[in-house]
């Protein structure tokens, strides 16, 4: 027999719009349990290891014998590793004694993550197995979460400890959930890059006929400038970028579907709003020409452009393209509002950064005029879609509020930084994300034949069109699922590999730095500080709230023994707190009210325990001031301790409350502050660690600053069963969004 106390498990039913129930989905699971108890929040002292037990002594008591027992006569507890199918009905793990005992035998057990994740792949239990006298076998129920996601083989651990009347042969037993690694993608039409034109817009491939690298020996738009040099042309840089694949992005598509399933009465409005930036050419053409617009679930007076129409339009599928950005009327950027953007469909003017333009070749080949305008190199152009507000909906009644929610505001952050001081040292968005090549001169076009024209102007300030940024994960998904997404005929795997390499190098060298100092040991307490410096012109991180940055810290002795570990991600990109933060306790509206304070990590200034992980992020709040992962339920932020750029000052005339520091970071004396002044663009975290274990030789502190584009709770927080949601979750199960290294620092203390 056995007695079991279930690890807290959440009710998996979400009350949606007061009437309809949907089954919630975990990272790699839908469904859940019928238990009403929530999963226990992370305990103090837990770290980022895969087994998030928080008990350093677990499994060490191998004898487990009670006083007076003779170890030589005690039976041995035996358990074999076993594999189950996810769909197995009521699977049991058999536990056997090597010989019968004349007295009662008991042993405690609990379940720990390995590659399988609690509440996503299995429901964790803990309890005590009891063998009556002469009883040889007992069993533990294994509660697997059976979903319709297709997954690779995953494993978790059943750990045995504190045996009474028996010895433990193997403290940890591995449970394998069999692979189910195929997925039926919804059919998607192949993208046709030579779609020609739609109203005022033309395909990027038509621009690429002349704005590509030369095929002759001139080296035009190649680096270095030889016939074998890398293609650095505008078309080649754009082709595999996030801009080109704005409508292919599986995460974006899943988020939009999640929002429309949550608010079906606003489906048309939601899709129209989102497509204005992810399919802007087709969206603008539809509204300017009053075509392909519908009234279904639409709050716009002139109608809404739908996702269904966008997926059938090659102009929409091309994302953010040449003739969108280069046709935006500079007069429509003051003030910077997406709704104000205008394109003159009759004028057909392509704006570029140069005044001494040759109009004839452009007109003869494309029927576009060309003009010089400084706005194409200003941050306002980027702000059109990178300063976004969304309407807010009251979570209590699903009615629209009279407020908007700042989804992202990199431009507003940039305004209040030293990147925008109004002098010659200012750096616009393009200066970092479309960098110029040093000591490089080239014409920026070739003839349609691919040959250079020696009479065309040579430019020495050519901005590359690779659009560097923090979204390597999108490029990975594009590369891995190009056929399923219908883009394999217009892209190359090597192109996405290049994007990933460039983006990772960009964030690892340009975005931030860290340093460890003030390392000292006194009375067995190790003290040190970690300084994080933001080198960007916006907050770190910036953009959509799914992004986060954090410190992972380890302390080791001369023998490599780990004395302290905090924030270290596992092989799925999760840290210890994600097990709870991404569970149903923290992503379902019906549960969050009772767990709100435990559903995110508050700003950390002083670290005394491994459970305190300095995480820099924004945490969305609904109208009840509870954590939410539903964008339209967003009303404000519970936390925004993303590190501001240098020069960010709440007393400045450039300051905007929309990008305020929120939460405990606003009270931290060295968060964006130094010498009683704001604007340092950095934070200092103070570590005070009591070393509990003996150690030998020098102590080494290793600190890594990690960046992750999609934290786990934003995946499990999508609770509906849409096809695009399931598609994205399956992609995550195969290739999770892994953390990327932004900076590292080391320090040693010798004795």
UniProtKB/TrEMBL annotation:
Superkingdom: Bacteria
Annotated region (Disordered), positions in chain: 33-74
Acidic residues bias (residue ranges): 47-59
Pfam families in UniProt: Calx-beta
Residue ranges of every copy of the Calx-beta domain listed in the record: 61-161
Gene3D superfamilies on file: 2.60.40.2030, Flavocytochrome C3, Chain A
Ranges of Low complexity composition bias in the record: 60-69
Record bears the keyword Cell division: no
GO CC annotations, alphabetized: membrane
Keyword terms: Calcium, Ion transport, Repeat, Signal, Transport
GO BP field: cell communication; metal ion transport
Keyword Transcription regulation attributed: no
InterPro entries: CaCA (IPR051171), CalX-like_sf (IPR038081), Calx_beta (IPR003644), Multihaem_cyt_sf (IPR036280)
Positions of transmembrane segments: none
Stored PANTHER family: NA_CA-EXCHANGE PROTEIN, ISOFORM G, SODIUM/CALCIUM EXCHANGER
Name this protein carries in UniProt: Calx-beta domain-containing protein
């Amino acid at each position: 027999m056995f007695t079991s106390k279930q690890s807290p498990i959440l009710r998996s039913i979400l009350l949606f719009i007061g009437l309809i129930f949907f089954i919630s989905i975990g990272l790699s699971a839908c469904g859940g349990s019928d238990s009403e108890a929530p999963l226990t929040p992370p305990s103090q002292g837990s770290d980022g290891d895969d087994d998030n037990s928080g008990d350093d002594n677990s499994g060490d008591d191998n004898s487990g014998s009670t006083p007076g027992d003779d170890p030589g006569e005690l039976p041995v507890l035996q358990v074999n590793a076993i594999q189950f199918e996810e769909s197995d009905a009521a699977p049991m793990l058999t536990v056997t004694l090597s010989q019968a005992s004349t007295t009662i035998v008991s042993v405690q057990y609990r379940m720990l993550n390995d590659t399988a994740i609690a509440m996503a792949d299995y429901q964790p239990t803990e309890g005590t197995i009891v063998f009556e006298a002469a009883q040889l076998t007992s069993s533990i129920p294994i509660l697997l979460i059976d979903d319709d996601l297709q997954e690779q083989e995953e494993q978790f651990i059943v750990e045995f400890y504190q045996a009474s009347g028996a010895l433990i042969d193997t403290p940890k037993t591995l449970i394998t959930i069999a692979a189910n690694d195929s997925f039926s993608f919804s059919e998607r039409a192949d993208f046709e890059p030579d779609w020609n034109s739609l109203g005022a817009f033309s395909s990027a491939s038509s621009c690429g006929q002349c704005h590509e690298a030369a095929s002759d020996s001139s080296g035009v738009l190649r680096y270095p400038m030889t016939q074998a040099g890398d293609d650095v042309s505008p078309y080649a840089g754009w082709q595999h970028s996030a801009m080109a694949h704005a409508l292919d992005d599986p995460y974006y598509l899943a988020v939009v579907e999640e929002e429309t399933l949550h608010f079906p009465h606003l489906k048309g409005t939601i899709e129209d709003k989102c497509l204005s930036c992810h399919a802007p050419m087709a969206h603008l053409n539809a509204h300017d020409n009053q075509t392909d617009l519908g009234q279904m679930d639409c709050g716009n007076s002139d109608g809404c452009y739908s996702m269904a129409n966008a997926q059938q339009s090659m102009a929409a599928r091309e994302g953010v393209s040449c003739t969108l950005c280069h046709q935006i009327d500079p007069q429509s950027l003051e003030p910077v509002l997406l709704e104000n953007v205008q394109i003159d469909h009759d004028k057909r003017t392509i704006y570029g950064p140069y005044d001494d333009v040759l109009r004839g070749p452009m007109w003869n080949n494309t029927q576009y005029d060309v003009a010089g305008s400084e706005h194409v190199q200003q941050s306002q152009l980027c702000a059109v879609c990178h300063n976004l507000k969304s309407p807010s909906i009251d979570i209590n009644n699903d009615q629209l509020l009279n407020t908007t929610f700042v989804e992202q505001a990199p431009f507003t952050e940039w305004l209040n930084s030293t990147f925008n001081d109004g002098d010659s040292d200012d750096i616009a968005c393009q200066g970092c994300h479309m960098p110029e090549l040093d000591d490089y001169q080239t014409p920026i076009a070739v003839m349609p034949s691919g040959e250079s024209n020696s009479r065309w102007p040579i430019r020495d300030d050519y901005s590359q069109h690779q659009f560097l940024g923090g979204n390597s994960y999108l490029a990975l998904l594009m590369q891995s699922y190009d056929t399923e997404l219908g883009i394999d005929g217009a892209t190359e795997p090597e192109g996405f590999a290049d994007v990933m390499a460039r983006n990772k190098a960009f964030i690892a060298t340009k975005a931030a730095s860290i340093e460890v100092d003030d390392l000292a040991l006194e009375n067995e307490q190790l003290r040190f500080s970690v300084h994080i410096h933001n080198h960007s012109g916006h907050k770190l991180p910036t953009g959509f709230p799914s992004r986060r940055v954090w410190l992972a810290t380890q302390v080791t002795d001369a023998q490599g023994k780990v004395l302290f570990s905090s924030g270290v991600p596992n092989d799925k990109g999760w840290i210890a707190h994600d097990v709870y933060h991404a569970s149903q306790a923290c992503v379902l509206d019906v549960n969050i009210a009772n767990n709100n304070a435990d559903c995110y990590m508050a700003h950390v200034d002083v670290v005394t325990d491994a459970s305190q992980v300095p995480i820099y992020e924004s945490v969305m709040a609904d109208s009840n001031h509870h954590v939410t992962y539903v964008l339209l339920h967003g009303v404000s932020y519970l936390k925004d301790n993303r590190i501001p750029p240098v020069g960010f000052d709440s007393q400045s005339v450039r300051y905007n409350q929309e990008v305020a520091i929120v939460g405990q970071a606003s009270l931290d004396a060295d968060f964006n502050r130094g010498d009683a002044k704001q604007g340092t663009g950095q934070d200092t975290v103070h570590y005070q660690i009591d070393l509990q274990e003996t150690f030998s030789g020098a102590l080494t502190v290793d600190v890594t600053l990690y960046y992750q584009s999609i934290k786990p709770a934003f995946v499990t927080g999508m609770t509906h069963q849409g096809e695009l949601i399931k598609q994205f979750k399956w992609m995550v199960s195969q290739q999770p969004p892994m953390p990327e290294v932004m900076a590292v620092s080391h320090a040693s203390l010798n004795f």
